Amino acid sequence: MSSYKIHYFAAPARAEVARLCLSIGGIAYEDINYTQATFPEAKPRMPFGQVPVLELPDGRMLAQSGAIDRYVAKLAGLYPADPLDAAYADQLVFQLADFMELFTPTWALPMEERIKARQEILAGKGKEKLQQLEKLVEAQSGGYVAGVKLSFADLALFVGLSNMSGGLYDGVPKNLLDEYPALKAFRNKIANEPAVKAHYEKHGDVLRASFKPDA
Ligand SMILES: N[C@@H](CCC(=O)N[C@@H](CS)C(=O)NCC(=O)O)C(=O)O
After folding, report:
1. Which among 56, 98, 137, 199 has most CB atoms closer than 10 A?
2. Mean pLDDT score of the chain, rounded to an integer?
3. Is domain 83-193 given the CATH code 3.40.50.300 in the classification?
């Protein structure tokens, strides 16, 4: 029987939350990973010419990572049932997107300028956003960012922090989280969730070295 397919690149980036949700939910899926060389052939089959795209077992295609993540989180029981918890989960995910978005223009810069621009972000607007996230995490008595159980928002924060401190962003130090002890402890806590840990024991390639506990 055909399963869900995630069309993306090998990198964690915008597809990783969906992969984790499916894995944690015990829902079979297959990764269809493109390279810069193979993507142009597939591009016209994607609803908006971009990936990630979730291919449903019946062949329908769902685009936009925000829509995919929420859909698979619901399938996996990782989208809060309580409307207010769900809103807090979304709040975190949108705020994290604002933080990540600060770095988007830096990809187009030559390496030296890119590194400088990222250092400036981490000393300015980015620092402000990380401090806000640090406070938010510190204030959670239940240990999760929305409600008292693991949700896709925890996974999104875990993925964002692991990505950022993984050495893949030139100009972002691998010890970035030393400045943010609550975020560092949170990242390690989610990395130690049994289902998350089990996922990275299976999918622990070099791009995901920083997704492991105590990385
Ligand atoms: N808002 C979209 C953005 C998707 C996006 O920017 N995808 C990039 C990869 S991360 C892509 O498909 N690039 C290739 C292209 O545009 O041809 C989402 O979150 O899914």
Report:
1. 137
2. 96
3. no
For residues 84 and 59, give the distance between their C-alpha atoms in angstroms, rounded to a whole number: 33
| Ligand 1, atom 6: closest residue by C-alpha | 50
CA distance to 11, 65, 81, 210, per residue, from 15 (Å): 8, 7, 23, 16
- What is the CATH T-level fold of the domain 4-76, as seen in this structure? Glutaredoxin (3.40.30)
Residue 214: predicted pLDDT: 80
The boundaries of every CATH 3.40.30.10 domain in the chain are 4-76
- State whether residue 39 is helix, strand or coil: helix
Q: Residue 1: pLDDT above 80?
A: no
Nearest CA-CA partner of 89 in 150, 34, 48: 150
Ligand 1 contact, 64 CB (< 6 A):
yes
Taking residues 146-157, what's their average pLDDT? 96
Q: Looking at the chain, which residues constitute the CATH 1.20.1050.10 domain(s)?
A: 83-193
Q: How many Å from the N-terminal Cα to the C-terminal Cα in the chain?
A: 37
Residue type, 51: V
Closest CA to 24 of 125, 155, 207, 185: 155
